[in-house]
């Protein structure tokens, strides 16, 4: 089981490809073991491809922040 006392911010960065796959996933912050675990989960994510102004699928860079609070 995980550490229910972890608290802080985790930064996620990744690219959603024109086919909806996630590449270049990275998680950083709080704890290296947690970051590694999150990266493993991120590798399984998939998305609906983003369509550009011309109606073509395109790659999109994403940066998200998560805030963890203890149980």
Descriptive notes:
- The chain is an alpha+beta fold and 71 residues long.
- The protein has one domain (8-64).
- The protein is 15% helix and 41% strand.
- It is built from one helix and five strands, in the order E-E-H-E-E-E.
- The chain has one helix at residues 32-42; strands at residues 8-16, 22-28, 50-51, 57-58, 60-68.
- The protein has a three-stranded antiparallel beta sheet with strand order 2-1-5.
- The longest helix has 11 residues, at 32-42.
- The chain is elongated, with a radius of gyration of 14 Å.
- It starts with 7 loop residues before the first strand and ends with a strand.
- The mean pLDDT is 90.
Q: Count up the domains.
A: 1
Overall radius of gyration: 14 Å
Topology as H/E string?
Answer: EEHEEE
Question: Strands across the major sheet, in which order?
Answer: 2-1-5
- Enumerate how many helices there are, as a single number: 1
**Main sheet overview:** 3 strands, antiparallel
Class from secondary-structure proportions = alpha+beta
How many runs of DSSP E, i.e. beta strands? 5
Outline the fold blueprint:
Blueprint: E1 8-16, E2 22-28, H1 32-42, E3 50-51, E4 57-58, E5 60-68
Antiparallel strand pairs: 1-2, 1-5, 3-4
Task: List the keywords.
alpha+beta, 71 residues, 3-stranded antiparallel sheet, 1 helix, elongated, two-stranded antiparallel sheet, 15% helix, 41% strand
